[in-house]
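BUG: 3D viewer hangs when loading the predicted structure for this chain

Environment: internal workstation, default settings.
Expected: structure renders.
Actual: progress bar stalls at 90%.

Input used:
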Amino acid sequence: MNPDERPHPLLSQVPLVISPFYNPPKTVSLPYNYKSLPSQLPPSLLSSFDSTQGHIQALTNDASLLSSQMDQVLLHSHRNDYQAWLRHSTNQLAPGYFDTNLLLAMKKLSK
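Structure tokens produced before the viewer hung:
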């Protein structure tokens, strides 16, 4: 045993007891008349699988398109909510700040 693999001293004092109610899984025996699976699928199943695959692909594309549209709507909604919150909090701190076009007095730089 490596020194890293040694059990904790406290755990080594606990005896390992198997519950009498525990039943380990038993192996399954197959009947003698068991038929094995075919090595290849019949063509009728393969054609239905291809059409089903096409339906799944179409549904996946629709879901991704809807997801991207919802992301844009939510982003726009969150942006509007944030701007409304910012305007409200700014009006609380400095009433009249957004009422005029004069926002900040800035010194003009000469060229």
